[in-house]
Write a structure and sequence with these properties.
Number of helices: 7
Order of helices and strands: HHHHHHH
Structural class: mainly alpha
CATH architecture: Up-down Bundle
CATH class: Mainly Alpha
Number of domains: 1
Shape: globular
Number of strands: 0
Largest sheet: none
């Protein structure tokens, strides 16, 4: 399996990206019937945005640490931080999609001017970066999983990883801003 995946990283990246984004758009678009999902108490659903804000903030820390460790050539700790970030992201996404599938998107409760000139642009950039990150993350992850560390230096892993980490960091940070606008400020 490893040898085949190793030779097909771009193709696997494309397939996984399309499947993942299709699942996200299906959930956000209301295509997933709520009746197919297990029911949860309102208190659990109400807690999801707050839990996700904690997950996002933790991901900001793990991305920053992952970048710091790789700059110090500490590949083992870098890998641990990037895999931790991936786990935080998956947990965030599962909770987010579950809540969206059951309740739909949250309405912005603040003033219209803030909605138009702050909230919507921030949300749009956050969503755009999250979408752009998906194939980049799959690509660097698949490169890392299919090659020994010594061989990664001969691949685009470092170059693409820098871009992916930067965009992922900004996306998580903007997600926290969206959370603050929706649940704290207003």
């Amino acid at each position: 399996m490893e040898l085949r995946a190793r030779e097909r990283v771009p193709e696997l990246t494309a397939v996984l990206s399309v499947a993942s984004l299709a699942a996200v758009f299906a959930a956000v678009g209301g295509v997933v019937p709520a009746s197919l999902l297990p029911a949860a108490p309102d208190s659990f659903l109400d807690a999801i945005p707050h839990v996700n804000a904690v997950l996002s903030t933790a991901a900001l820390v793990t991305i920053a640490l992952g970048v710091r460790y790789i700059r110090r050539d500490d590949v083992r700790r870098h890998r641990a931080m990037m895999l931790t970030t991936l786990s935080l992201f998956v947990a965030f996404l599962v909770l987010y999609l579950y809540r969206i599938s059951l309740e739909g998107t949250a309405a912005f409760p603040g003033p219209d001017a803030v909605y138009q000139f702050v909230y919507l642009p921030t949300l749009a950039i956050h969503v755009f970066l999250a979408i752009v990150c998906i194939p980049l993350l799959y690509y660097v992850l698949l490169l890392a999983l299919t090659r020994p560390v010594a061989e990664l230096y001969e691949t685009p892993h470092r170059r693409v990883g820098r871009v992916a980490a930067a965009l992922w960091f900004v996306s998580f940070a903007l997600g926290d801003v969206v959370y603050l606008l929706l649940y704290v400020v207003y």
